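Hey forum,

I'm writing up a methods section and want to include a predicted complex as supplementary material. The small molecule is pyridoxal-5'-phosphate. I've pasted the protein sequence and the SMILES. Can someone with a working setup run it? I'll credit the forum in the acknowledgements.
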Amino acid sequence: MKLVREIPDSDSQEEWLARERAHLSQVLYRYTPLVIDRAQGSYLYTVEGRRYLDFASGIAVTNLGHGHPVVIEAAKAQLDKVVHTSVVAHHQPAIQLAERIAALAPGKLEKVFFANSGAEAVEGAIKLARYTTGRSALIAFQGAFHGRTYGALSLTASKSYYRERYEPFLPGVYHVPYPYPYRNPTGPGDEATLEYVFNFIDEMLDTRVPPKNVAAFIVEPVLGEGGYVVPPSGFMPRLRKLCDEHGILLIADEVQSGYGRTGKMFACEHSGVVPDIMTLAKSIASGLPLSAVVATSKLMDQWEPAAHGSTFGGNPVSCAAGIATLDVFKADGIIQNSASKGAELTRRLRDLQQRMPAIGEVRGLGLMIGVELVKKDGTPDKELQKQIRKVCLDSGMVVLSCGAHDNVLRLVPPLNLSQAELDEGWEILNGAFQEVAA
Ligand SMILES: Cc1ncc(COP(=O)(O)O)c(C=O)c1O
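Reply by user p_vandermeer:
Happy to help. Structure tokens for the complex are below, copy them as they are.
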């Protein structure tokens, strides 16, 4: 029998990391070497007792900050009642949360399938699209991130190393350019960008995949991992129209952009476009694992019982946390705060941009903000991104990056960020720019 060695706990981050290296797979990349002991509100606390302002929110998950008391209370109460039923029985929290999501979702998106992660929601969405249309082809966008499972990864095209050594992918997946005005190959400006993208799509539908074979387009209404790119306002309506002309479903992946991140409940609301299917995950249970495929009754009612399923999906504790999350959204004016604090942070960054040629573009909606860093010749500057993030970390603040060339600073603070926390974050960020980019 193998004896388990007693390993005394330690307060040293280095010792914990050494133990991690021995027994946790290195494949899970981490942005920082921080070993977290606890977290509260907008702050993380390490095992060494250091405090960090969190402008990452667990990658857009803890939108209400860490450990929001209302959410924790609801989860604890549910733990005492029932933790798991799976498909053996029905439970109240899933029904109540589905009702709440249906009431908030745009248009007639009124039925929900719960899963655990964003990738699983994407898998569910594409299965639903293929199942109900009887068509196989799926069209995704370059720069998209939809997850790491095989179906989702087949759609993902934000960094090629996510796909390295994993071919072959799901057949029937096609990629088209995402409208990215700052780096549009036929010139900047919204019109030129949309012309480029839709010409590409039209030509693809003429030459490579007939529209009648296409089950769905899947799109992030604001590109996440691919660089926090906000598309021109005409993009989503034009895509919706194209889908309608050909009987193609439109899947909006709101895993990152949903739940108030962009200053509206769902990013789709900025354009008024209603998708046929919407995927949600990340923040919907404030950090407990939960995701959702939300669709019209027309589609969901064609998905026959047991055609899809999950053991853990929509577990009662996550759903209870999900209901409490929506209670807090309403009671605390979370969406308004995201919009106003986001506008303020963006304004300060744009002011800074006037004095910093290294800032190519500041973009975003609400508190989903990207800062594209460039060299003198306009090419992506990944090194600068790394330096700024390091200075921020050394100064007690966690900031992320994104983009195909990893040259975009990704600012994702909690949506209930206070003015004092915004000022503190700004001071550190501005200081980092002055130190390495001035
Ligand atoms: C838009 C989008 N879709 C899907 C996913 C995958 O989510 P998960 O990591 O929970 O599988 C992500 C994760 O970052 C995402 O940003």
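Some notes you might quote in the supplement: The first strand starts at residue 36 and ends at 40. DSSP finds 13 helices and 15 strands in the chain.
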